[in-house]
Amino acid sequence: MFRSFTAGPAVTAAILALQVVLPLVLIAWLGVFPAGSLAGFAVQAAGIGAFLFALARIAQWALPAWWLPRVYGALWLLAVVVHASAIAGAPVWPADAPGWAGLSVAMILLGLGAGFGAAALAGRRPPLVTIVDIANPFGAGQFLVGHGGGNRLVNGHLKTLDPRVERFRPWRGQSYALDFFGLGRWGLRAAGWHPSDPAAYAIFGAELRAPCAGTVRAAESRMPDFEVPRQDSVNRLGNHVILSLGYAEIVFAHMRQGSVQVAPGDVVAIGDRLGEVGNSGASTEPHLHIHAQRPAADGDPPLSGAPLALRIDGRFLVRGDRLKTGG
């Protein structure tokens, strides 16, 4: 299974630098030190805007909050509006070396933002594989996609599609998987930055329901839920349910110990209770891993079947998308 993220000191510092400090510095540059030429200001505004857009599409916004890119967008727009009229009478091109240096930096930002932003948008296109349509698998709540989409920029699971890496072959079926975090009060995923208690995470204990009719092929409910960030690298699925549709299987992983309500051979209908989200298996923090695959060949590892894509309530979900349900 693909790990979401761990928040050790180095990772925490990187997240704060890239997703908080850098955007605020760029917005402050535009708001406090706008370029003194028409070309300079236009490229400065476009470059910062493109960079912020790409960052909003690529980064995981479960940590920090999912709504932060919207705040950045509003601040960027405010800075553009405030300075646009004042710059109208300025010369077209920079008049000094600092002006040209600023224009050069802005052009780099524009290139990076446009390139990575376009690649992130390309990840919204469903892959050229069979798509399995299912209903929302959650009970009440709001949930954020941490990994999902059609390319590795927005979905880290796709690394297991690489046929050159032998150790990925037993996990090939999960290549188009989705990882979901829960969103609680103020749109935050947990009570704290990275608490060790799994119960502090909004998704822990969230109800899981059958998103389609099928037959339970496998179920496990005895494995422990670990404190964050401990995990089980041997029993990677943890507590899980594998639901067979005949031509495809739906896999639910990292469920809560003792919560699984079904057993192999059970026939379920849409909406039947399967269990709850937990923090078992190879999970660095509570989340739901769900994917679709072809049934594995006899004798092969259970997750080695050909990967399929999921469409939930008619949506091909990618990183940053949200699911809401009232119950």
UniProtKB/TrEMBL annotation:
<feature type="transmembrane region" description="Helical">
    <location>
        <begin position="99"/>
        <end position="122"/>
    </location>
</feature>
<keyword id="KW-0472">Membrane</keyword>
<protein>
    <submittedName>
        <fullName>Peptidoglycan DD-metalloendopeptidase family protein</fullName>
    </submittedName>
</protein>
<dbReference type="InterPro" id="IPR050570">
    <property type="entry name" value="Cell_wall_metabolism_enzyme"/>
</dbReference>
<feature type="transmembrane region" description="Helical">
    <location>
        <begin position="71"/>
        <end position="93"/>
    </location>
</feature>
<feature type="domain" description="M23ase beta-sheet core">
    <location>
        <begin position="205"/>
        <end position="294"/>
    </location>
</feature>
<feature type="transmembrane region" description="Helical">
    <location>
        <begin position="12"/>
        <end position="32"/>
    </location>
</feature>
<keyword id="KW-0812">Transmembrane</keyword>
<dbReference type="Pfam" id="PF01551">
    <property type="entry name" value="Peptidase_M23"/>
</dbReference>
<keyword id="KW-1133">Transmembrane helix</keyword>
<dbReference type="InterPro" id="IPR011055">
    <property type="entry name" value="Dup_hybrid_motif"/>
</dbReference>
<dbReference type="InterPro" id="IPR016047">
    <property type="entry name" value="M23ase_b-sheet_dom"/>
</dbReference>
<feature type="transmembrane region" description="Helical">
    <location>
        <begin position="38"/>
        <end position="59"/>
    </location>
</feature>
<dbReference type="GO" id="GO:0004222">
    <property type="term" value="F:metalloendopeptidase activity"/>
</dbReference>
